[in-house]
Write a structure and sequence with these properties.
The complex is a heterodimer of chains A (about 110) and B (about 120).
Chain A: E1 5-7, E2 10-13, E3 19-24, E4 31-37, E5 44-50, E6 53-57, E7 64-68, E8 74-78, E9 87-94, E10 104-105, E11 109-113
Parallel strand pairs in A: 2-11
Antiparallel strand pairs in A: 1-3, 3-8, 4-5, 4-9, 5-6, 7-8, 9-10, 9-11
Chain B: E1 4-5, E2 10-14, E3 19-21, E4 24-25, E5 32-39, E6 46-52, E7 60-61, E8 64-69, E9 74-79, E10 88-96, E11 104-106, E12 110-115
Parallel strand pairs in B: 2-12
Antiparallel strand pairs in B: 1-4, 3-9, 5-6, 5-10, 7-8, 8-9, 10-11, 10-12
The chains are: A mainly beta (about 110), B mainly beta (about 120).
Amino acid sequence: DAGVTQSPTHLIKTRGQQVTLRCSPKSGHDTVSWYQQALGQGPQFIFQYYEEEERQRGNFPDRFSGHQFPNYSSELNVNALLLGDSALYLCASRTTRGRPGELFFGEGSRLTVL
Amino acid sequence: AQKITQTQPGMFVQEKEAVTLDCTYDTSDQSYGLFWYKQPSSGEMIFLIYQGSYDEQNATEGRYSLNFQKARKSANLVISASQLGDSAMYFCAMREHLNRDDKIIFGKGTRLHILP
């Protein structure tokens, strides 16, 4: 049973570029959340997708957008990259049938913006 | 406003001792859930324990227990008989509303060092 998988694991971009990060949730999970984790900080909630719709959004600008596909996988897009976007981006999935609120996390995509 | 507060940026504890990691939260909801996650140096986030706001008993999962004091809005994690493998970042988290589309938010974390 594959857990949450994310790609790519590492990437380097320059300011102003655009990036797309991908996530496949754990089998049987229908809800995907994205978090940004700066070095030494806690994960910051970006947004959450369920039934291909954005259901919740954190305090992130419109440069951050996402999508969920019919197979529950998800993408995070960031436009016009800034140096401050450098972070570990974590994808987490869950299901209402599991322990309440238990999130399963991927290993993350580490983005470096130069 | 900060919803989850972890006031201990770092802690050093001798192996085999018990350790308490502090967490306070802020919510006006009656229904909410509180969680603790562990993040080792390898980076993956590991779910440890859950406490619902209406649960009368403190949650326990093996060596982990959650000291839930609702009136004080605190949800401290207690690790009994600490082990070297417990060295990691620990995050307290909260889920408000407990409905279909609620989100889970995290504190800034506490780095725990277990000394041999």
